[in-house]
Backbone:
């Protein structure tokens, strides 16, 4: 059985992609990096734990991608260019076939976003992964949660809710058919951090956050940090092709009427509003810059949808397209609720 250090050398040691920025990577007691002149460092960390953040039978290459991608998304939300990452991993066994596939997915994400993996740690234990990521942003230009102002429009990228629908399918709480099945499972297993959008929003957005715990929950963090309120009137779910097949609440079986215990008609809507795990960006911007954001959507080939307005006061009110209030019992994921 290979040693810890042999596994690191075999699967996680790579030559720095840019020696001008990464002076020393994996292999010493610490890494040495050289930030770009005039830039501030943005640092974040996220942990993925088996049974909490991913299912035990998740494909290891997908898990490798997602382990890094959820951290890259934090850089996108700050308007930062991701540069360096460290990986700490707890593994139940030195299963080389599994580790090789995990590393392939992890480095595929690193390659996609030009990130140097510069160190970390491994230990034996229940499967979990913790990444610390570093990014750069020109001094004073980082996107914060605290900048939203009354009169700002609220926007979201992509189509939130797809990852939650994919998870619901795997857990037997909904039944997806093609092409929604492939689309939603890809959103769950291979999220696409919106780095290009985050960089483009510097100087344009007033506040931003990535959607990890649910659209309403994460928007709530912006409202709390900015001391403002909001009204949403999103068209949800975003597209009929993302709906799971919804049977009638009462189905005729064998000549008798029976109650069906599948998803409620509002299930896809609630996935959109509270599902999380999409890693889209929700952001605010002055209404006067609406046209610039519309052009940005075109240039990035990424849907950007205006879903509400920032108002004075506190709280978050949500209405359907007909103007009727939507009451959602739980607004997002919380590890301890």
Residues:
């Amino acid at each position: 059985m290979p040693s810890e250090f042999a596994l690191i050398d075999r699967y996680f040691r790579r030559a720095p992609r840019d020696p001008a920025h990464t002076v020393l990577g994996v292999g010493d007691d610490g890494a040495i990096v050289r930030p770009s002149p005039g830039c501030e460092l943005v640092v974040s960390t996220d942990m993925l734990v088996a049974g909490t953040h991913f299912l035990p039978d998740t494909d290891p290459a997908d898990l490798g991608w997602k382990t890094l991608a959820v951290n890259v998304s934090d850089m996108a939300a700050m308007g930062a260019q991701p540069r360096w990452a460290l990986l700490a991993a707890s593994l139940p066994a030195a299963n080389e076939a599994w580790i090789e596939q995990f590393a392939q997915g992890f480095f595929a994400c690193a390659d996609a976003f030009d990130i140097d993996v510069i160190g970390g740690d491994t230990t034996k234990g229940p499967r979990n992964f913790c990444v610390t990521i570093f990014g750069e942003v020109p001094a004073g230009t980082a996107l914060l949660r605290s900048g939203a102002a009354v009169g700002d429009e609220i926007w979201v990228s992509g189509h939130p809710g797809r990852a939650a629908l994919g998870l619901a399918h795997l857990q037997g709480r909904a039944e997806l058919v093609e092409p929604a099945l492939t689309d939603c499972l890809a959103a769950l297993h291979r999220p696409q951090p919106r780095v290009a959008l985050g960089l483009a929003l510097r100087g344009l957005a007033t506040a931003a956050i990535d959607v990890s715990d649910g659209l309403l929950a994460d928007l709530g963090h912006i409202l709390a940090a900015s001391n403002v309120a909001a009204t949403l009137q999103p068209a949800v779910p975003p597209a009929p092709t993302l709906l799971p097949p919804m049977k009638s609440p009462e189905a005729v079986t064998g000549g008798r009427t029976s109650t069906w215990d599948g998803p409620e008609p509002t299930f896809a809507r609630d996935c959109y509003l509270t599902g999380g795990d999409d890693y889209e960006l929700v952001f605010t911007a002055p209404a006067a810059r609406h046209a610039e954001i519309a052009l940005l959507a075109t240039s990035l080939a990424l849907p950007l949808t205006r879903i509400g307005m920032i108002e004075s006061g506190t709280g978050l009110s949500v209405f359907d397209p007909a103007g009727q209030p939507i009451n959602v019992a739980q607004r997002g994921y919380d590890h301890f609720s």
